[in-house]
Amino acid sequence: MAETVVSADLTPQSKLPTLGTTIFSQMSALAQQYQAINLSQGFPDFDGPLYLQQRLAHHVSQGANQYAPMTGVAALRQAIAEKTTELSGYQPDAENEITVTAGATEALYAAITALVRAGDEVICFDPSYDSYAPAVALAGGEMKRLTLQPPVFAVDWQAFNQLLSPRTRLVILNTPHNPSATVWQQSDFAQLWQAIAQHEIYVLSDEVYEHICFDAAGHASVLAHPQLRQRALAVSSFGKTFHMTGWKVGYCVAPAALSAELRKVHQYLTFSVNTPAQHALADMLRHQPQHYHQLPQFYQARRDRFINALSGSRLKILPCSGTYFLLADYSAISDLDDVDFCHWLTKEVGVAAIPLSVFCAGPFPHKLIRLCFAKQDATLDAAAERLCQL
């Protein structure tokens, strides 16, 4: 019998063959290489609250350094429940309906993995955050995309209804929306409910920028809609709220039955989340709630400063109702596509941005780039000075 010869160098067949390093990592690396001002990746260049840092050190010194409960530290889950009640008028059960996760990305992945089965269809709105599609693909689902058009990026609800099919399992939305900087209104949630009420469809609402909302009506959450919240998972991020993206602590609020399924994935994905950080965040929510109350004004001041500084440029700034991103139309400056333009901008002008087309699966012919204004005033002023020279 002939022996089978197996090469020692086995290359696995990729489950995500079209994916490489994310554009965010690519542009940050390029910014570092060319010493450019990095307005690409969405993270602040300033620290979070001193009180939060002090509480972290306190809990480390007091021995809160072993595994936390799988669902999250009880004090933090209770504080989240109280905050949710205050902001949305809905009081989730801290024991069964709130799960602390290793950042919002883990919550999104766990939710998609828990709900999406092989052959299921998932609807999302393009441009969309880049973590959704890979999670759907790994779960065996099929992504159906509804493209939103600039400058308003409004949902065409007739087109949405046409995407629904007997295989539709999940709708993923994001408000305030990265990258378009738009926000959903209560009327959007009413339209969504009207569309899916008679179908067995769940909703995953990515609300990580919930406190960075400049709309006069404030942030509209899926949790404030009595019917939708019975089949929805709402995901939030402490990293965005407290300028501590490196802590990677987020959470998911969902009905008990959905939370139970999410937790089955979560317990084998990360099991538990940084213990002293959870205790510190619980203290922050309880004793410094003014931080998230004042966050819209904090970031609106940065937004307005940056827009004013860019007023002398040839960039056309699109409306910004939420998140800490601005969209800029560069069509008066260059005929390059957005990816090539962002590379040129980083290398030749010294400002790193993100091309909007990378948030879309299909063609996105608009000449738009995303700029992050979660930066110190000096950073924004220096970037604007360079961009005004174009």
Structural class designation: alpha/beta
Strand adjacency order, main sheet: 2-8-7-6-5-3-4
Helix/strand order: HEHHEHEHEHEHEEHEHHHEEHEEEH
In DSSP terms (H or I, runs of 4 or more residues), the helix count works out at 13
Low-confidence stretches: none
Largest sheet report: 7 strands, mixed
Distance between the ends: 72 Å
Q: Let me know the number of strands.
A: 13
Mean pLDDT: 96
Query: How much helix is in the residues?
Result: 25-40%
What is the radius of gyration computed over CA atoms, rounded to a whole number of angstroms? 22 Å
Explained architecture:
The chain is an alpha/beta fold. It has 13 helices and 13 strands. It has helices at 23-33, 50-61, 74-88, 103-115, 132-138, 157-163, 186-196, 238-241, 256-269, 275-287, 290-309, 338-349, 377-387, and strands at 37-38, 98-101, 121-126, 142-147, 168-174, 202-206, 232-237, 250-253, 316-317, 325-329, 351-352, 354-355, 368-372. The radius of gyration is 22 Å and the shape is globular. The N and C termini lie far apart (72 Å).
SSE blueprint:
Elements: H1 23-33, E1 37-38, H2 50-61, H3 74-88, E2 98-101, H4 103-115, E3 121-126, H5 132-138, E4 142-147, H6 157-163, E5 168-174, H7 186-196, E6 202-206, E7 232-237, H8 238-241, E8 250-253, H9 256-269, H10 275-287, H11 290-309, E9 316-317, E10 325-329, H12 338-349, E11 351-352, E12 354-355, E13 368-372, H13 377-387
Parallel strand pairs: 1-11, 3-4, 3-5, 5-6, 6-7
Antiparallel strand pairs: 2-8, 7-8, 9-10, 10-13, 12-13
